[in-house]
User: What shape does this take?
Amino acid sequence: MFALSSASIEKIPFWLDPKKRSIIAQVVVLIMFGLLAWYLVSTTLGNLGKQGIATGFGFLDRESAFEIGESLIPYSAADTYARALLVGVLNTLRVALVGIVLTIILGAFIGIARLSGNWLVSKLAGIYIEVMQDIPVLLQLFFWYAIFYGMLPSPRQALNPIKGLFLCNRGMIFAVPQLHPSHKYIFLAFILGCVLVYFLRHWAISHQARTGKALPVFKISVIILVGFPLLTWVAFGAPTHMDHPKLHGFNFKGGVTLSPEFMALLLGLVLYTAAFVAEVVRAGIQSVGKGQREAAMSIGLKPGQVLPLVILPQALRVITPPLTSQMLNLTKNSSLAVAIGYPDFVSVANTTINQTGQSIEGVALIMAVYLIFSLSTSAFMNWYNKRVALVER
Amino acid sequence: MKKFKFGAILSVMLVFVVTGLVMAGTLEGVKARGHLIAGVNGSVFGFSMPDDKGNWKGLDVDTAKAIAAAVFGNANKVKFTALTAVQRLPALQSKEIDVLCRNTTQTLTRETTNGLNFCQVNFYDGQGFLVPKKLGVKSATELGGATVCVLPGTTTELNVADFFRKNKMKWKPVVIEQTAELSKAFFAGRCDCLTSDASQLAAHRSVAPNPDDYVLLPEIISKEPLAPVVRHGDDQWYDIVDWTVMALIQAEEFGITSKNVDKMLKSQDPQIQRFLGVTPGMGKALGLDDKWVYNIIKQVGNYGEIFERNVGPNTPLKLERGQNDLWINGGLMYAAPFR
Assistant: This one.
């Protein structure tokens, strides 16, 4: 009675053994799920076959025969569907990446303003957050788009606030430096500067640890990052030729054009998501105990050092996970572009689906692409989160 | 575990129920439901758009009503689903709707790889360009470098790309899915030109802030036979929709209207007697009531009446019959014999 032999344990029937039971249950669930998936796929394929609807991804190699409004790579109606979809992916990435950077800057700024001791600044930030969070982003997009095409004049009466910049209902058109061989070297000089700054910072930290003297790292970094490219530019004889936009026929030629669709989408997404990011930032900063700030002040850190050295490193641990989800939100919301005519991935994929009739393949592609976007953003942010996370000993 | 089993059984049953419905013919499905579901555009005046009282009006709407009259003997037993150009074909393929009457162009790809069948054409159209008068453009070949507003997922989107490619002109599309948003953007000056089927351009212009500020360019760059669409694989339903449109055309040719159809029942012409079901047989062959044509014409009218009522010279669209006149008047509207 006291010592249960191992033989008697094994006699417990497997359906009463919680461990085995859970394994069996999981296997059964898996099999059922597999069967269901197989059933759905085979039924779908069968039904499509019965209706004579073509299946497969063969259409990707066919000529797309439709035009796309803006593209980062050369594209024409004579290119394939695959290339059209790639144009869409790049357009989505373009608005998502620029949007994420601007959102984080604006969100951090408003989040800090919300905590400001200045009553007016704090209240204004509060109003901004409440208003922006409460209006659906689609409405905001329609609003900004209507502003861009409704308020701005036609190209022939374009606003010209400063030389080389035009504003009209075809977008914002501005002059850019004409392509020059020096550009390559200026870029290289900038990269070289970045590498140098990286080593400088490391050296400065060990230098401070050895001697106790802090170097003005920030000032030196700025000088290197601006000075190197500037010196290269001067060394090439300071070419100042600009590619100025000129009105030609219906539209401007030359310069760079940011379309109303792109600007409206970017503005709508950034202003909307920044409100959420501001709250995330505020919560993160407030999560750091008051004592931390007081302790930092009491050991003699200057006010300008307290935030970057003591508060932010701790706040970032709280901020990073919800910030990741806001970045994902922005990327996914960019698919609302279809409503205002920005040719993002969903818009191009929709057209492809309709021109080819391959809805299932098209939707699968859309899901796969967004999954890849989201998973890679998550992977990067998880890696970053691990870096800033508290290392408990 | 119990919960899971229940869920699994339920989902398997659901799949069977769904496939069961799939197997039944469209006509039986429609009759069992008690009303027809027709996919329409919803925002093209003259073709399909609710009026200020919420009643659906338009040529495509009347076509769908005619089908309802043929099936149920009641033209009002139809519900309309507004679809964008991108949504329309999947909606039909996935059986959300029974028939698509949404100014859809018959093409080879749509009839083959998309698994659809186009019935008798109810409007012959062609693609044109609408431009603001103040632009001073006289011909579409002067549109090089223009920004063009266009709907996605349409044949127009492909035709316009072909047109500019053929004429070696550069252009920039602005592609917006919602028809109403697209025309707003055009009238606000976002694009130099709006391209679509000429009838739709007339519809757009009729709702412009100032219709006289816009002109249609003379070029018609494509053939757009617009027809009701059904799915592959249900020949009976295809025949019903096909012959409903033919009945509208034939009635006009016979001179039968909604006003004189009762008198026409007493006609001694054997063709008209067969047509209106006085001599039975035609309706039965389709699986319908022998009075089907009578019901259509009595409640909806013949093709000419539908045209005049929705898009003709006395409507804001002011379209002439042109290609859409009867073949005996030099048009393309021609119904096969009812015998």
Residues 96 and 331 of chain A are 5 Å apart (CA to CA). The longest strand of chain A covers residues 165-168. Chain A has a mean pLDDT of 88. The longest helix of chain A spans residues 18-51.
